[in-house]
Amino acid sequence: MKILITGGAGFIGSAVVRRAIRQGHEVVNLDVLAYSANLENVEAVAGSPAYAFEEADICDRLRVEAIFAHHKPDAVMHLAAESHVDRSVEGPLDFVRTNVMGTAVMLEAARAYWAKLEAPKKDAFRFHHVSTDEVFGALGEDGEFTEETPYDPTSPYSASKASADHLVRAWGRTYGLPVVITNCSNNYGPFQFPEKLIPTVITRALEGKSIPVYGDGRQVRDWLHVDDHAEALLLVLAKGRLNETYCIGGDADRRNIEVVRMICAELDKVAPANTAHADKIEFVKDRPAHDFRYAIDCSKLERELGWKPSVTLEQGLAETVRWYVDNYGWVERIRERGFHSERLGLVDQGLVKA
After folding, report:
1. How far is CA 344 from CA 12, 38, 91, 193, 296, in A?
2. 189-212, pLDDT tens digit by residue?
3. Fewer Cβ neighbours under 10 Å: the N or C end of the chain?
4. How many CB atoms lie within 10 A of CB 32?
5. Res 279: pLDDT
6. What is the dihedral of CA 171, 173, 175, 181, to 10 degrees?
């Protein structure tokens, strides 16, 4: 297939781009190159004749329509999104613009393009919207999210992604656009932007700084390695049933403090300091409306398509820690572009000075 991938210079998007090229697909990477995007993430495949890059804003309808007309994709994988919860609390309208309006523009451009296709290309076309488990809200001490879980978003980020999910379903039902949706748990792995929990812990520990943990660290997340996620996404694109939703999880539920301590223990092995890295853990004021627990039941995906996660959290964290240690220059180049720790909300937590 020739796949138009939005957000392909981001963390998850670049993993999908790399895997799609390896699987023999052609890829058109559409990315606006906002702060968290990085073309270094796709350097491994950028020289392939199967790869093309288009710098564009998904909210720019004319530009998006021109990209459809020029490249004539067989499918769309829509990953472009604002995705950091803390940033959504500080600036919610950016999330509404990108995640809601941007998705609507992509849907309309895809619909106009798809409507003019002739069979069998029209029958084979797919619009795959990549979403998050955060649209379901929070769980208590037990239970798991499924495809039937009612939506109950908490943050501006999750609300904007829930809105996008509803738009995708509406375009499928109203216009017959062939759509599929996936909702994933927390991703981790190489090339993740330094503002997220796991790379924040690794990079601050390597620098000898305090390691901030919200609240008491008892919040639970299901951790999914980004390579497992990319494999699942391409499988759903190729074989998933139309107008269906598939939940994708890592089967690795852990409290945040457990994950932080696992990272510190791994760093003690590969990058030892004068004292144990866990000694730098500092509990800080919790963020507003911090969801307590996420967990995903991905049995539908395993039952229908035979997928299940292959990377254990222990294996994945060890590989991720090693990647950041070996590729610390990647982080430094991001900082040279203007990213600093205060963008993590650490100023408000009193951990760094403005």
Report:
1. 20, 18, 13, 11, 26
2. 999 999 889 999 999 999 999 999
3. C
4. 19
5. 96
6. 40
Token pair, residue 141, equals 């001490």
Global model pTM greater than 0.90: yes
Active site residues: 133-134, 157
In angstroms, the CA 338 to CA 54 distance is 23
Other C-beta atoms closer than 10 Å to the C-beta of 213 total 22
Cβ–Cβ < 8 Å for 114, 179: no
Q: Residue type for 117, please?
A: L
What whole-number percentage of the chain has pLDDT above 90? 87
pLDDT, tens digit (0-9, with 9 covering 90-100), for 2-61: 999 999 999 999 999 999 999 999 999 999 999 999 999 999 999 999 999 999 999 999
Instruction: Please give the structure tokens belonging to residue 15.
Output: 């993993």
Pair of tokens at residue 155: 């943050």
- Helix H, strand E, coil C: the string for the chain is CEEEEECCCCHHHHHHHHHHHHCCCEEEEEECCCCCCCHHHHCCCCCCCCEEEEECCCCCHHHHHHHHHHHCCCEEEECCCCCCHHHHHHCHHHHHHHHHHHHHHHHHHHHHHHHCCCCCHHHHCEEEEEEEHHHHCCECCCCCECCCCCCCCCCHHHHHHHHHHHHHHHHHHHHCCCEEEEEECEEECCCCCCCCHHHHHHHHHHCCCCEEEECCCCCEEEEEEHHHHHHHHHHHHHHCCCCCEEEECCCCEEEHHHHHHHHHHHHHHHCCCCCCHHHHEEEECCCCCCCCECCECCHHHHHHHCCCCCCCHHHHHHHHHHHHHHCHHHHHHHHHCCCCHHHHCCCCCCCCCC
